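Cross-posted from the bioinformatics board.
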Amino acid sequence: MSIEALMGDYTLQIVTLGSAMLGAASGVLGSFAVLRKQGLLGDAVSHAALPGIAFVFLITGVKHTEMLLLGALISGLMGTFVIISIHRYTKIKFDSALALTLSSFFGLGLVLLTYIQRIPNANQAGLENFIFGQASTLLKRDVYTMIVLGSIILLIVGLLWKELKIFSFDPEFAQSIGFSDRKINIILSGITVVAIIIGLQSVGVILMSALLIAPGVAARQWTDKLSVMVILASVFGIISGVLGTAASSLAANMPTGPAIVVVISLIVFFSLFLAPNRGILWRYLKMRRNSREINEDRILVNLYQLALNHDDIYHAHQVAMLTPIEIVEFKAEKNMVKSLHSLAAKGYVRGDYFDTWAITDAGIEQAKRIVVENGGESL
Amino acid sequence: MQKYLIEAEDMTVAYDKKPVLWDIDLKIPKGILMAIVGPNGAGKSTLIKAMLNIIRPISGKVLFNGCDYQSQRQYIGYVPQRGSVDWDFPTSIFDVVLMGTYGQMGWIKRPGRKQKEKAMDAIKKVGMEEFAHRQISQLSGGQQQRVFLARALVQDADIYFMDEPFQGVDAKTEKAIIVILKELRSKGKTVIAVHHDLQTVKEYFDWVTLLNTKIIKYGEVDEVFTAENLKLTYGNIS
């Protein structure tokens, strides 16, 4: 399908709308999951949903979306319950309990799906789409359900904003002032599970947790304000939902889940590297600038000390004299000259003939200031 | 008229087989500063959390003014341990302090101008106004503690529970906190704080509870805070 045809296709518009809503809801809820360090729980719920889908089909024999998703919901919740119970009643650590449950439920789901494919029933085709997701299998009704549920989720988050914020930051304090952490936990987990379940058809059980977590992770990089983070996460969710759906419609047989995840991963990648303050590149540059500044300070103080020990304060000294003995090597001297040029540009030193440098009045003042700032040993 | 402000009776807390707190009976009068002192793992934080209804005891109860926690909670303030939250959370000092007003508002309602003014006043009181709109990750330990204290002040409570308010703070902050505590006492408020530094108990507090799973002794510092009782609490380490 060409892009023009895509834009004009009514069915696709509807499907894209559904993906956008899904992206918005999961971005918002994922932000809270990221902040509460509960990212993996979504992974468990979505994987654990698969056997539920297969079971419902085995019992009913028809592919009725609402029924299938109800099955997904029940087994997803069962999975969560199993994880929490293992963690609470045994000495097994949380991550082990999670990995154990997640893989056993998913394994059971795959076994059931394989069995279903063997039985003679024309309806079975397409059930495997729940693994990687296929937005084009969404019916108009499914999209309406997604929009209604998504809107309810966003409305709840809007109404309980204050409660969700304090619960995510300091649950014990929240409890002490009368916000039952059990109530908030149930509401937040509940709407998160609903968001995961409505995403299963288009994103799939394996990758749904990425759409939940990745927008929040990316958004956290750009801001220190919770409201901005949540809005940004929903925007990232919408972008990846829409672009992923479009990409999977353009290429035949491309499942939607992986396409969405590739888009959101790119957004995460750029955010991790390029975001100001928290980005890796930014931090690296800042570290380099810091060490350069400290180095320049040191050179200026060295020069100042040399000047004090000389009859003529403004006497020019050779670069080699300024280089600390332990690092006399070619590169050190080259860096030294670079630093001296930078100091000269600030007016603290003056280049004399050949490779000799002298301190200026401004340089003397600055050197005194540096010495005072760093503990002020008298010179 | 209730003689005691806070009364705990037969309170026992256990997570596992071994109880963390055993049969706690406490009667605390109004208008005192009380330290809870004891070795590591004695259940000091647990005692505070159980009184605050954060942890449910397996037996016993706590009464405030003769009533249960839920009906009195707007008169009760809490300063949790500084390390109990993620200080990289995307929020500002002002927002954290504003959380102190949430309890009086109840569900769904949002803080308005009045609440925001209150929060700003508390921030000024702990000397943090120039940082008010900064993100909390840039704060030192002492500044974090001031923020938590400001949040509790906003609660405008009559009883304050504080979990190690002096833990890891600079000398200046420690002085600032003690000034605020004494001011609270002079207004007739009651403060109960988990405290680690045995050297300063006599100087900072009027009452002390010596705790090691059970209550060893409690009462006025001059009577209770003796070498003999400390030995009973901490064992023969010194």
